[in-house]
Amino acid sequence: MTKEEKRALLQQWKLSQQKKYILNKAEAKSLFNFLHKKLADCDCDHTLKYSLEWLTKKYDGNDEKITEIVAELNADGGFCDCEVLLNCYERYDLE
Prior knowledge:
Blueprint: H1 3-17, H2 25-41, H3 49-58, H4 63-75, H5 81-88
Helix pairs in contact: 2-3, 2-5
């Protein structure tokens, strides 16, 4: 196998490993900006209080979608608002 073929296979594998998130980039940025502003004024109370506030405003009436997003945040280490900022931010490819 040539070096170019190996490189192509590696690129293909990397693309297959990229996780598909429920929130798109704009929504994720909005959530993270919201949390950053809220946590600048108040300490984290070790809950998803502000994340749920944002999700409820965004997906009012769609409890299933909110539950799925919370599960996704938890899976990436976001069990409270500050952990969503610290652990989940880098998981979303926002650049």
